[in-house]
Amino acid sequence: MYFPSKKDWWLTVLICFLMGGTILLSVIEPSVPGIIITTIVSAFLVWIWFTTGYLFTKDELVIRFGPFRSKIPYEKIQSYRDTRSVTSGPALSLDRLEILHDSGVMGVSIVSPVRKEEFKSELERRCPALKNKTLTQ
Question: Which CATH number fits the domain 1-132, given the four candidates 3.40.50.12780, 1.25.40.10, 3.10.50.40, 2.30.29.30?
Answer without folding.
Answer: 2.30.29.30
